[in-house]
Amino acid sequence: MSTTDASQIHDLRSALDFLREMPGQLLETDTQVDPDAEVSGVYRHVGAGGTVMRPTKEGPAMVFNNVKGFDDAKVCIGMLASRKRVAALLDLDEEHLGLEIGKRFENLIAPEQIAEGAHVDCQEVVYKATDEGFDLRKIVPAPTNTPVDGGPYITMGLAYGTSPDGSQSDVTIHRFSCVDKDKLAMWITPGSRHLGAFFDEYCQRGEDMPISISIGLDPAVYMGCGFEAPTTPLGFNELQIAGAVRNKPVELAKCLTIDQKCIANAEYVIEGYLSATEMVNEDTAGYGFAMPEFPGYTGGAKVCPVINVTALTTRKNPIMESCIGPSHEHVSMAGIPTEASIFNMVNKAMPGRLLNVHAAPCGGGKFCAILQFKKSAASDEGRQRNAAMLAFSAFGELKECILVDEDVDIFDMSDVMWAMTTRFQADTDIITIPGCHCHVLDPSNDNAVSGSIREHGIACKVIYDATVPFALKDRFVRSQFMEIDKEKWAAELEA
Question: Which one is catalytic: 228, 282, 293, 321?
Fold first, then answer.
């Protein structure tokens, strides 16, 4: 099926069809690729961007049609590694993506389970762990990002779990290391994932947690699942956001071997139990590393809870979806929901003053936010700093807020740094807030770097106020150029 209308996108395949009709947004190749480091090695040069080591760039999504060792499968990477592409796939305005998604909270649409006996796309092919010779590593072409990764990782796996009493459900993207033929290691960021809260309840009861992992999905599902508390409190199912974006419910299906649900049109679904007692080192290669993490460094391997796999189901000729940990894809999935969360909270407190938010790629979508603030009266002076403090409350893992005026392009870091250079004085415009919860994957967030850090994860937040004092606005007017007839000069402007 081909589609020219983003409203028709409902799964990964229709999203790819959509991109095929967008010039420069999808690259497909029949050249054989090795999932062991080569997929990411190639895509680094094609379109990874983000905090990936240079050389890299923003470019098209990529589909590898010929994957070594996997005759019936393809690998898609970089679907969301471009703000322009995300906006097109969601049919939203590129510069106001966060704001537009944030508006969808007014009209949430809950997921729905498909009818009993209906065809389930993700269960066209079924492999059970009890089958002779079952080995998920030979079925799922999970790439490694680098030659020293701890092993093959599932990086676009959407975990679906419920509270022990069945009253609450949650979906979150996690990384999963394929540590054995029927075992995955699941990294859960301490204290910041609601699935982790559910899992703690199961552990207290001495019970394993039934969990499904859906891979290869509608981009709207991935984007909706990047929200965190307090925007989405415990028990809030983020699939409601994807439903609101598409104006139709996300379809769920019953798993075959566990009492759990999964995304019905996923390319792959892994079913299993997150063990209350079994732990494993996610590094199976012996290098001591996990995989490249969003700050741009390859993180050390961690001891994680084990998922004992009971079944693996797929579509016919499935498409594995993957991402490079530090790529712009992470910026999109983490950063755009962050923008929405910050804008909604600040706008409720002081309507009309915050114009836009950008979770900058340099922070992987999590560490650094640029807030465009408008001071309309003398009484607005100082409110920009209140807005920054609200931003830290809206997204606890945020480390830095840069405040700029309405005449600064927050998506152009050169323009942001211009504001820092000409409107900022370090002795009066830096506000530090030590002793805050930040993010455990920030390598500088450690006592070895700063003696003020008591333990890893507790660090210093900072506000850089590069706004002009309201009383001095007349002295900081940018040079105004002639407004031209753009139709007259269309050919030259498009060259």
Answer: 293
At residue 371, φ and ψ (nearest 5 deg) are: -110, 125
Task: Identify the residue whose tokens are 């075992």.
Answer: 183
Classify residue 326 by burial, with Cβ atoms within 10 Å: 0-12, 13-18, 19+.
Answer: buried
Helix (H, G, I), strand (E, B) or coil at 453: coil
C-beta atoms surrounding 460 within 10 Å = 17
Q: What are the tens digits of pLDDT across the range 247-303?
A: 999 999 999 999 999 999 999 999 999 999 999 999 999 999 999 999 999 999 999
Q: Is the pTM higher than 0.85?
A: yes
Could you please report the per-residue DSSP string of 64-123? ES-BTTBTT-EEEE-TTS-HHHHHHHHT--STTHHHHHHHGGGG----EEPPTT---GGG
Separation in Å, CA 448 to CA 400, 444, 452: 20, 8, 10
Q: Looking at the 3D structure of the chain, how many domains does it have?
A: 2
What residue type is assigned to position 63 of the chain?
Answer: V
Q: Are 338 and 331 in contact (CB under 8 A)?
A: no
8 A C-beta contact, residue 13 and residue 7: no
Active site residue 492: no
Least Cα distance to 85 among 10, 26, 3, 41 occurs for: 26
- Among 6, 49, 41, CA closest to 327: 49
Q: 370 and 287, same structural domain?
A: no
Which CATH number covers residue 365? 3.40.1670.10
The answer on 314 and 377 residing in a single domain is: no
